[in-house]
Amino acid sequence: MKVHLLYPDQDFDAAQKLPFNAEALAQDLELNTMFEAMARDDEYLLDVVKHAIFSSLESPDLIRYRQEILRDCLKNPAVIREIYNIPLEAIERKHKGWLGIYTRYPSSILNTSVQLLEMFMILLKKMRQLTDEHIEEFESQGFQRFFRMIQQELNDDYFKEIQEHLNILKFQHGVLISAELGNGNEGTNFILRRNNRDDRPWVKRVLSPKSPVYSFSLHPRDEAGARALGDLRDRGVNLVANAVAQSADHIDSFLNVLRFELAFYIGSLNLSEELAKLGEPIAFPLPLPVNERRHSFTGLYDVSLALTMKKKIVGNEVNADGKSLVMITGANQGGKSTFLRSIGQAQRMMQCGMFVGAESFSANVSSGLFTHYKRGEDSTMTSGKFDEELGRMSAIIDHIKPNSMVLFNESFAATNEREGSEIARQIVTALLEKQVKIFFVTHLYELAHSFHVNGHQNTIFLRADRQENGQRTYKLIRAEPLETSFGIDAYRKIFGGEHEKHIG
Predict the structure, then answer these.
(1) Domain-located, residue 203
(2) Phi/psi class of residue 470: alpha, beta or left (left: φ > 0; alpha: ψ in -120 to 50)?
């Protein structure tokens, strides 16, 4: 049985490594806040959502496959949680009954596997019942395939046959084994035989003459004889013990995969519920091919900031379709960094098949997402801030591919404006030539102005909105970069508004 709720034709590879810049992405985009909301203190959920969100899908069809499944989950959260609890119950029962501890003795392996299968049958029957009750409520290709598989493979005949086999494998009337004599009259070719069923009434079985048999009895203290008989039994049941153990492992593996793949959707449900409490909208994005240049949205907000502030966050509306460079300037504390985080978060969420924090969102998928944010001083004093920036940029260049996306936040500002602007301009120009999409937040006027005066046709300029009295709206507007650094804001903050008339 195959789950296939994350991919239509394969299981998720939980062993794959996280991208080299996973830690930087988590820090710069504040993804850990989102991860915690999805996990709700569940370490297993936390590990799953991290792997899923960092494992980007580059196919719009695969993204839509997961989106359809997640839509079903949002419509039927109680059913999804019931199904998710089935593998959790299996784990709990195994731990309570010590069923997971196998020994090297075939008889013990057989007994443990039979107990395990009996427990699994109870849970699989529960899954079949949930399937029969709710299959009509699900529309996605993934869940329809999954539920049809459950109905076809876990039908009544299957459960009846499994129960018959389990009853036989308990060997309540002893074990019937045939063997041959080999070299030195040692037993060989041990074969487990099915006991002949005697369906006669018990009275006839008791009163009928017994067939002659050769038998012997062991003394209760004959430990060596008991070990010898145990060895014969183990040799007889060895093959069937291995077969039953493999069957138990197969079902156990299926439940583990089901738990893993549903954990991603459970985490998404948890996040949607947290955002709903804050009155924040969510939207399923429209993913477009990697070689297109599309990026438009309404009401896009920073999910992690909303979760931290516990309130509704100002959203932004931008249409950057056909643009490869988005240059973002404006006053401090105007929402530029928040906006940049929302861009990165939405891209990650879209490319793992989730909803995004927005009223609407569409963008081309990227072949990689990278962040280059300013950092604090090097505590080890082994390098300056500017050297450290260049080192991180070099590492990104080593991994970047065409159609990737890079988010710059106040990059190359650790040196003087002219040098920083020129270095940034050359890097941005080279990346654009390699078909890389760029969002760049900067205070370097010369950098922003150089792209503006050159009339780069694939560039859009955004500016953090600031009203005449210095108040921020935390919205970005489409506007050219300004040379002023808004020093008047700092003056007002320090000396007060009554001195405004003295500032030119």
Answers:
(1) no
(2) left
Residues 288 and 263 in one domain: no
Q: What is the pLDDT of residue 99?
A: 52
Residue 102 has pLDDT above 60, yes or no: no
Kindly state whether residue 252 falls inside one of the protein's structural domains: yes
pLDDT digits (tens, 9 = 90+) for 478-495: 988 887 544 445 445 544
> In this structure, are 262 and 353 located in the same domain?
no
Of residues 456 and 282, the one with the higher pLDDT is: 282
**Of the candidates 172, 212, 170, 176, the residue with the CA atom closest to the CA atom of residue 196:** 176
Backbone dihedral region for residue 314 (phi beyond 0: left; psi -120 to 50: alpha; all else: beta): beta
Percent of the chain with pLDDT over 70: 75
Closest CA relative to residue 373, chosen from 324, 347, 412: 412
Domain that holds residue 157: 57-170+248-276
Burial of 309 (0-12, 13-18, 19+ CB in 10 A): exposed
Output the pLDDT for position 379: 54
- Both 67 and 161 in one domain: the answer is yes
Asked whether residue 85 is assigned to any structural domain, the reply reads yes
Q: State how far the Cα of 422 lies from the Cα of 444, in Å rounded to an integer.
A: 10
What is the C-alpha separation between 378 and 382, in angstroms, rounded? Answer: 7
pLDDT higher than 90, residue 197: no
- Tokens of residue 2, six digits: 């195959």
- Cα 434 from Cα 368, distance rounded (Å): 13
Same-domain check for residues 364 and 257: no
Does residue 378 register a pLDDT over 60? no
The predicted model gives 61-89 an average pLDDT of: 97
Distance CA 57, CA 60 (A): 8
How many domains are there within the chain? 2
Assess whether 325 and 457 both reside in one domain: yes
Asked whether residue 146 is domain-assigned, the answer is: yes
**Is the pLDDT reported for residue 149 higher than 60?**
yes
* 458 Cβ contact partners less than 8 Å away, ≥ 6 residues apart: 293, 322, 323, 324, 325, 432
Q: Which residues, other chains included, contact 406 with Cβ-Cβ below 8 Å and sequence gap of 6+?
A: 370, 371, 372, 396, 400, 431, 436, 437, 438, 439
Looking at the structure, tell me whether residues 302 and 447 fall in a common domain: yes
For residues 304 and 157, state if they share a domain.
no
Q: What is the pLDDT of residues 225-240, one digit of tens each?
A: 556 556 555 555 556 6
Residue pair 244/169 in contact by the 8 Å Cβ criterion: yes
Same domain? For 340 and 457 the reply is: yes
365: left (phi over 0), alpha (psi -120 to 50) or beta: beta
What mean pLDDT value characterizes the chain? 84
Q: What is the per-residue pLDDT for 490?
A: 45
